[in-house]
Design goal:
It is a single chain. The protein is of the alpha/beta class. The protein has one domain: TIM Barrel (Alpha-Beta Barrel). 37% of the residues lie in helices and 18% in strands. Strands 1-2-3-4-6-8-9-12 form an 8-stranded parallel β-barrel, surrounded by 4 helices. Helix 1 links the parallel strand 1 and strand 2. The N and C termini lie close together (11 Å). The model has no long low-confidence stretch (mean pLDDT 93).
């Protein structure tokens, strides 16, 4: 197992802080590295490759230090579709991402599909499995084309999203207001995105998957916006899914979760410190599975204070103590 922490590589101070925490808390127990996050979507960090490459130079040149790269995230404006991988605009941004990945020696690039729908678009029309599979195929083929065009030899992983994409935002009161990214959320979706010979596989985000598991279980197959009827069944546990995926599982985002989004009652929380959420023994069992594998595990924890990262430190200690 290789332990990683996210880093905002455009900001040198964040690199220094993250490395210090990894050295002090992971130390000689496990190899470690960074997941470089590209915040701000099409207008954000992706447009500063020179700064990022300069800040990461010593890490990029170290063969024992693993660097992965997360594609652009534009949470503040999901509706812009600039990074939507079903569109030419999204594939053009992907070209920038893969060029940067080559430059900083990132051995894996992690992507969301960024195919965003509003609740208004999905309610009243059960999202069909046929439509879903067609869009998934289009995304995978587009990414493979860009990968070959740029000559990127590393792996590309597609990350699952939670059943309700922005269920952690209390401001949304109705499903019509919500935002959905439904192309990779259920267990069945993972296998569609995998093509190991092209170095295409999946990233299992545990907190996203836990929210989906619980949402489907509670719903009893009723009113599951964005999930085809064929997919709306009990989801396997993390370890069972990982075993079925086998070599198609390239990467893991590891964190706990709390709650699901229920209009007017509760909202979901991603990136919770392991052991402090709703997963319980399932997350511990999955950790023991990962410990025997050479799979990068990125601790995607939401720290309240980005200057001390107390939640990340607690998470590293939890991982080491529970193996």
């Amino acid at each position: 197992m290789i332990l990683l922490t996210p880093v905002r590589a455009r900001i040198k101070e964040d690199i220094v802080l993250r490395e210090k925490i990894l050295k002090e808390n992971v130390g000689k127990n496990y190899p470690y590295g960074f997941e470089v996050k590209l915040l701000g979507g099409a207008k954000g960090d992706i447009n500063y490759p020179e700064v990022i490459a300069k800040n990461l130079k010593s890490y990029s040149e170290n063969p024992d230090f693993l660097i992965t790269l997360h594609g652009p995230i534009e949470r503040k404006d999901f509706s812009s579709a600039k990074t939507d991988l079903t569109e030419k605009s999204g594939l053009r941004i992907l070209e920038k991402v893969l060029r940067l990945a080559k430059r900083i020696n990132a051995r894996l690039v992690n992507l969301h599909t960024e195919k965003i729908y509003s609740g208004k678009e999905l309610i009243g029309k059960r999202f069909s499995l046929e439509e879903k599979r067609m869009l998934q195929k289009k995304i995978k083929e587009g990414v493979i084309r860009v990968k070959e065009k740029i000559g990127y030899q590393g792996k590309v992983a597609f990350e699952n999203m939670p059943c309700v994409l922005m269920g952690d935002t209390p401001g949304f009161k109705t499903a019509e207001e919500m935002v959905f990214d439904p192309l990779l959320i259920t267990a069945g979706d993972f296998f569609v995105f995998s093509e190991p010979d092209k170095k295409i596989g999946v990233c299992l985000d545990t907190s996203h998957y836990g929210i989906t598991q619980k949402t489907i279980d509670v719903s009893k197959n009723k009113d599951l916006v964005g999930i085809p009827e064929e997919d709306a069944k009990k989801q396997p546990e993390l370890t069972e899914l990982a075993e079925k995926l086998g070599d198609n599982l390239f990467y893991v985002h590891f964190a706990d979760f709390k709650n699901i989004w229920v209009p007017g009652k509760s909202y979901s929380l991603e990136g919770v410190v392991p052991g402090e959420g709703d997963f319980g023994e399932e997350l511990e069992k999955f950790l023991k599975y990962l410990e025997k594998k050479e799979i990068p595990v990125m601790l995607e924890i939401y720290d309240k204070n980005l200057k001390n990262l107390n939640e990340t430190k607690k998470s590293i200690k939890w991982v080491i103590n529970n193996i």
